[in-house]
Design brief:
This protein has 116 residues and is mainly alpha-helical. The chain has one domain (5-109): Helicase, Ruva Protein, domain 3. It contains 7 helices and 2 strands, in the order αααααββαα. The protein has helices at 5-8, 11-24, 29-40, 44-53, 57-62, 89-105, 110-113; strands at residues 77-78, 81-82. The chain has a two-stranded antiparallel ribbon with strand order 1-2. The longest helix is centred in the last third of the chain and has 17 residues, at 89-105. It is globular and about 30 Å long. The N and C termini lie far apart (30 Å). This is DUF2200 domain-containing protein.
Length: 116
């Protein structure tokens, strides 16, 4: 996995795509935000500040308060790659987020998505 262009992409640019994907499947922006906050440890206010700052994915995850320890429970395939086997820590975090948004769009309950 050598494509690192996404590392420098603005998180604020991709965020509306996450929301749009969720809303197309009858889910909400609030649920997307809840997933992002669960994964990163950001509060809702901190997440909004990150969106306004237009940080890259690299910067976004670098300043995240704490990646949820339950990410080890996230399993499955995103973009043809098993998320639990991704070696690059930053790419793995990005793909964890992709996987969680996919699960939301596929209709999983928030309880299952957040590994409760």
């Amino acid at each position: 996995m050598t494509n690192t262009k996404i590392f420098e992409m603005s998180f604020a640019t991709v965020y509306p795509l996450y929301v749009k994907k969720a809303e197309r499947k009858g889910r909400t922006k609030t649920e997307v935000d809840q997933i992002i906050c669960w994964l990163t440890g950001f509060t809702q206010q901190q997440l909004m500040a990150q969106l306004q700052a237009e940080h890259s994915f690299r910067e976004f995850f670098a300043v995240a308060p704490e990646i949820n320890p339950d990410t080890k429970l996230i399993k499955g395939v995103v973009c043809g790659v098993r998320v639990e086997e991704i070696e690059d820590p930053l790419m793995q975090k990005i793909r964890y987020l992709d996987k969680l948004i996919d699960e939301l769009a596929k209709g999983k309950t928030m309880e299952k998505i957040l590994r409760k």
